[in-house]
Automatic annotation (TrEMBL):
Pfam families in UniProt: UDG
One GO BP: DNA repair
Domain spans labelled Uracil-DNA glycosylase-like: 6-83
Alphabetic keyword roster: 4Fe-4S, DNA damage, DNA repair, Hydrolase, Iron, Iron-sulfur, Metal-binding
Descriptive protein name: Uracil-DNA glycosylase-like domain-containing protein
One example GO MF annotation: metal ion binding
InterPro entries, alphabetized: UDG_Type-4/5 (IPR051536), Uracil-DNA_glycosylase-like (IPR005122), Uracil-DNA_glycosylase-like_sf (IPR036895)
Length: 99
């Protein structure tokens, strides 16, 4: 993905420009599990859903599993979100041990 400066969300046009590259990488690597950090990453795979409804959970789509959490930068700005992210990363750590 392309670096976005000034900590802004990428535009829809920028996301669409990068998607073919991302899809090709996923096709080549064929990962079975993903960790989606933040609204932008979440919306690429689950555009019809809201991140806050699925944060801290595993979702399945097309035979692949996705763990959903906030972007770490949000935790730097909001203490409540930081605690949620820390909880989520502990859950990820436990899950990785089960692989």
């Amino acid at each position: 993905m392309k670096k976005i400066y000034r900590n802004r969300k990428p535009t829809k046009k920028e996301i669409e420009a990068c998607l073919p590259w991302l899809k090709k990488q996923i096709e080549i690597i064929n990962p079975q599990k993903f960790i989606l950090l933040g609204e932008v990453a979440f919306s690429v795979f689950f555009s019809e859903k809201e991140l806050s409804s699925f944060r801290g959970k595993w979702l399945e789509k097309d035979g692949k599993k996705f763990f959903i959490t906030y972007h770490p930068a949000a935790g730097m700005r909001f203490p409540k979100i930081k605690k949620a992210i820390e909880k989520d990363f502990k859950k990820i750590k436990r899950t990785i041990r089960e692989f």
